[in-house]
């Protein structure tokens, strides 16, 4: 299990007390912990009824008799799209803006709840006309355009199952996911804007379906966005705008059983059999609506919310589509990258729409730290009242920079832990209720049961590190791996013999207050001379130095120590010309020694201009390990910029 040195992390222990002005109903929110503790299942049933519309009320909460396969509210019926759309219109909120959509080139659309509902109804009728019905699978391969949200909701409206494929994946990845889900329809676009140019999408779908072997796809529905030339197969391919214009305008949503499959989302990776995470309807929508409302202290009538995630990932599913729309929120949807067409694009959008709640990834935050505060200082960010972090542990320095520079020193931050498999936020601070600690995800949310265990399944004491587990079933939990129940049990439920405990690979430590600090995946742990060191801990130590903007640490094979620490570091822009590479490397090796100890001192520190990242912002440490161990660099097709690894390799030769 990961070892941590609390003494080396003293800078993390700064605290920001809860502000009673932040959350008007702080007392009521705090009481949710007591309610959930007294009757956890009753608590979730109450949330399901309060937050959602049920066409048939449920009489059962959790059935765990076939653990680890769970059902929640199984005899109830609801329609997910109706909960996200129609009921808001019927409540008199049809004129409220659902989506402020901003295209990368600067084009934009404001779409009200009435307009979005009308579009989803037409799209639902279009799907039915193409032979899509309850239980059929639809693959969605789109850029961040309104049609992506419309397509997902239309699929849900008719009881079908969507499988959204991230728009940067290759033809091989598309085909493997289409085949595994046995999709009947693919919804794609000619292309989408990214970094100042159109990135073609339909050609990848064409290449995927042209690969040898039979497939189940009957039609390809194409959104016109990039206006790039595409090949066309008559009888199979249809333009979205033409087909939806011909569709009937009225569609009555029917209720479906709460355990009706809602979506399959494949975890990252392009080799081997894809792992399709299955989520169903009632329990999932209950928890994403609850967490979106309470973690972000949402006030739908006044807030403008923006989660920067792509809909191709779980964050986009839960906190761009289903959670915000179930709560009737107004939100921003942006097509492009943070630096396109200029480095202040995100801050420009926040200023334009008066964003009040902003939820993004630590990787993006550290990228902005590298550029300095002069860019955000050019924009009015005073509308922001809450900042959020998602995707990986946020180091304390990034937390404080985010709060001080973007949040003007007063805006609270929620650091959230959850996964594709959990479906919704599981661990988070609640500003106005809990004390905030830079870098700490802090505590399980009401109704969620989390523990940190050692390898034998025993709880670790305060100050100890171990394995993060979920000890009780939760409403938004994955219902299995599509078509592979044995793999589901083996992957997530076989680590411990003391009972059905969910463990997906994350390490954590408890501080002296019992608050949770995420350490990243346990497989991101190095064994140096018999000592287990977390890459996240060393990266945090590196970034705590004032000259460092971002870092990535890997373990490289070493004859003497088994593994050696190798670090790749980006310097802050104001220090790039101040230090030679050798001087910066020596300085940072000493700094890690002072922060953690000699055992963690990097064998090498490479100063680089960029790190290899996927389009979702995840650092590809596997590629850095190839460099550190002198191997040929592996597959780079999922990188946002495939030239980065060549630049790193050339620089280090």
Question: Could you give a quick summary of the protein structure above?
Answer:
By secondary structure, the protein is an alpha/beta fold. The protein contains 19 helices and 30 strands.
Polypeptide structure, described:
This protein is an alpha/beta fold and about 650 residues long. The chain has a domain at about 530-650: 2-Layer Sandwich (GMP Synthetase, Chain A, domain 3), CATH 3.30.300. About 30% of the residues lie in helices and about 20% in strands. The protein has 19 helices and 30 strands. It has a seven-stranded mixed beta sheet, with helices on both faces. The chain has a five-stranded parallel beta sheet with strand order 7-6-8-11-12, sandwiched between helices. Strand 19, helix 14 and strand 20 form a beta-alpha-beta unit. Helix 5 (about 115-130) packs across helix 6 (about 145-155). It is globular. The two termini are about 35 Å apart.
Name some characteristics of this structure.
653 residues; alpha/beta; GMP Synthetase, Chain A, domain 3; seven-stranded mixed β-sheet; five-stranded parallel β-sheet; 19 helices; 30% helix; disordered N terminus
Topology:
Layout: H1 26-38, H2 40-51, E1 62-66, E2 69-72, E3 77-78, H3 80-84, H4 86-93, E4 97-102, E5 108-112, H5 113-129, E6 137-141, H6 146-157, E7 161-164, H7 171-181, E8 185-189, E9 191-194, E10 197-200, H8 202-209, E11 219-223, E12 237-239, H9 240-245, E13 256-257, E14 261-266, E15 276-280, H10 282-295, E16 304-307, H11 314-326, E17 330-334, H12 345-353, E18 357-360, H13 362-371, E19 386-389, H14 396-406, E20 413-415, E21 450-453, E22 465-470, E23 480-481, H15 485-492, E24 506-510, E25 516-521, E26 525-528, E27 531-534, H16 535-543, E28 548-558, E29 562-571, H17 581-595, E30 604-607, H18 621-628, H19 644-652
Parallel strand pairs: 4-17, 6-7, 6-8, 8-11, 11-12, 16-17, 16-18, 18-19, 19-20, 29-30
Antiparallel strand pairs: 1-2, 3-13, 4-5, 9-10, 14-15, 15-23, 21-22, 22-24, 24-25, 26-27, 28-29
Helix pairs in contact: 1-2, 2-10, 5-6, 7-8, 10-11, 13-14
């Amino acid at each position: 299990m990961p070892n941590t040195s609390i003494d080396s992390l003293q800078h993390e222990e700064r605290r920001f007390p809860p502000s009673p002005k932040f959350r008007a109903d702080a007392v009521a929110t705090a009481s949710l912990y007591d309610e959930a503790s007294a009757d956890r299942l009753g608590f979730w049933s109450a949330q399901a009824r309060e937050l959602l519309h049920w066409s048939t009320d449920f009489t059962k909460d959790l059935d765990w008799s076939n653990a680890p396969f769970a059902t929640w509210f199984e005899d109830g019926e609801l329609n997910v799209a109706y909960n996200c759309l129609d009921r808001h219109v019927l409540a008199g909120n049809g004129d409220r803006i659902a989506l402020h959509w901003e295209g990368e080139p600067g084009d934009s659309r404001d779409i009200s709840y009435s307009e979005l509902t009308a579009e989803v109804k037409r799209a639902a009728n279009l799907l039915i006309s193409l032979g899509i019905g309850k239980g059929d699978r639809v693959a969605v391969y789109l850029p961040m355009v309104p049609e992506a949200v419309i397509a997902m909701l239309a699929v849900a409206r008719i009881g079908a199952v969507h499988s959204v494929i991230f728009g940067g994946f290759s033809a091989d990845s598309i085909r493997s996911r289409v085949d595994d889900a046995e999709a009947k329809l693919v919804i794609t676009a000619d292309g989408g804007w990214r970094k100042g140019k159109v990135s073609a999408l339909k050609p990848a779908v064409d290449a995927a379906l042209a690969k040898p072997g039979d497939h189940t796809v009957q039609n390809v529905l194409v959104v016109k966005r990039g206006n790039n030339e595409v090949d066309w197969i008559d009888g199979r391919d249809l333009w979205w705008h033409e087909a939806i214009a011909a569709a009937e305008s009225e569609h009555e949503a029917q209720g479906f059983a709460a355990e009706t499959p809602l979506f399959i989302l494949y975890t990252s990776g392009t080799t081997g059999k894809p792992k399709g995470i299955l989520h169903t309807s009632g329990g999932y929508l209950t928890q994403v609506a609850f967490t979106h409302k309470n973690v972000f202290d949402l006030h739908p009538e006044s807030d403008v919310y923006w989660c920067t995630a792509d809909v191709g990932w779980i964050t986009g599913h839960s906190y761009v589509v289903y959670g915000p729309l179930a709560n009737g929120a107004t939100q921003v949807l942006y097509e492009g990258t943070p630096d396109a067409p200029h480095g202040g694009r995100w801050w420009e959008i926040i200023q334009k729409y008066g964003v009040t709640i902003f939820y993004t990834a630590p990787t993006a935050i550290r990228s902005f730290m590298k550029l300095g505060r002069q860019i955000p200082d050019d924009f009015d960010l005073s509308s922001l009242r809450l900042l959020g972090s998602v995707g990986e542990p946020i180091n304390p320095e990034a937390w404080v920079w985010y709060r001080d520079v973007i949040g003007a020193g007063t805006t609270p931050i929620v650091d959230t832990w959850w996964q594709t498999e959990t479906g919704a936020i599981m661990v988070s601070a609640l500003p106005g209720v809990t004390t905030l600690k830079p870098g700490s995800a802090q505590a399980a949310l009401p109704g969620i049961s989390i523990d940190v265990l050692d390898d034998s399944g025993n709880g670790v004491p305060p100050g100890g590190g171990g394995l993060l587990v979920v000890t009780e079933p939760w409403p938004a939990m994955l219902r299995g791996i599509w078509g592979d129940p044995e793999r589901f049990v083996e992957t997530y439920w076989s680590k411990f013999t003391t009972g059905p405990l969910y463990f997906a690979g994350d390490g954590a430590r408890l501080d002296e207050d019992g608050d949770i600090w995420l350490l990243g995946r346990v497989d991101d742990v190095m064994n140096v001379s018999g000592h287990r060191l977390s890459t996240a801990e060393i990266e945090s130590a590196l970034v705590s130095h004032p000259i460092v903007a971002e870092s990535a640490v890997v373990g490289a094979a070493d004859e003497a120590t088994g593994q050696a620490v190798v670090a790749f570091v980006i310097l802050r822009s104001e220090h790039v010309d101040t230090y030679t590479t050798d001087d910066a490397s020596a300085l940072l090796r000493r700094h890690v020694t002072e922060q953690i100890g000699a055992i963690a001192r990097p064998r090498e520190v490479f100063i680089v201009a960029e790190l290899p990242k996927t389009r979702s912002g995840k650092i590809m440490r596997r590629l850095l390990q190839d460099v550190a161990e002198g191997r040929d660099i592996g597959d780079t097709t999922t990188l946002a910029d495939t030239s980065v690894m060549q630049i790193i390799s050339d620089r280090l030769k």
